[in-house]
Specification:
CATH class: Alpha Beta
Radius of gyration: 16 Å
Order of helices and strands: HHHEEHHHEEH
Oligomer: single chain
Shape: globular
Largest sheet: 4 strands, antiparallel
């Protein structure tokens, strides 16, 4: 399952989540529908991170994370410019995002950030809690690019937890 292109996985998930979101919105309003979808997708991202880490069989490094990036970029899902990569950092910009395009085409652009963007940091929680993502803008929210800045906290306290 972890080898399926992520774009295809997200498309399948979105087809189901769209109907769940619509029912929640009808019953409880837009704010509650977004809160529930956001929480559910967050939990899913953490679980997915754990699954990838378990498959690796050890605490993942940023290089391990970079090595699985092709699953997210497969089929030109993302166009990425790597700015800098080292043992404790991985900085890149996404200049085209087919996830964003797909959600807009599906009529889900208004919750695309919940379905995709918010997953990125949550994935780290399950994958390696010492990994942190800083991002100030996304294509989904109208920016020209997404600025991904991953850091690996190697302080003794965090490496014991991971």
């Amino acid at each position: 399952m972890n080898q399926m292109p992520i774009l295809e996985r997200r498309r399948i998930e979105a087809m189901v989540i769209k109907n769940i979101y619509d029912v929640l919105r009808e019953r409880s309003g837009d704010e509650e529908a977004q809160a529930v979808v956001g929480e559910a997708v967050s939990r899913s991202a953490i679980e997915q991170g754990k699954s990838f880490a378990e498959e690796l069989g050890r605490t993942p490094t940023l290089q391990d994370f970079a090595d699985i990036q092709p699953l997210w970029t497969k089929e030109n899902a993302l166009e990425i410019d790597v700015i800098s990569q080292g043992e404790n950092h991985f900085d890149f910009n996404v200049t085209r995002c087919r996830y964003s395009e797909m959600y807009r085409e599906m009529g889900l652009g208004h919750i695309g950030h919940l379905l995709s963007c918010n997953r990125d940091g949550d994935f780290c929680i399950g994958y390696n809690p010492a990994m942190k993502l800083e991002r100030t803008q996304t294509i989904m929210k109208g920016a020209s690019h997404c600025d991904f800045r991953y850091r690996l906290d190697t302080t003794e306290e965090n490496t014991k937890e991971a």
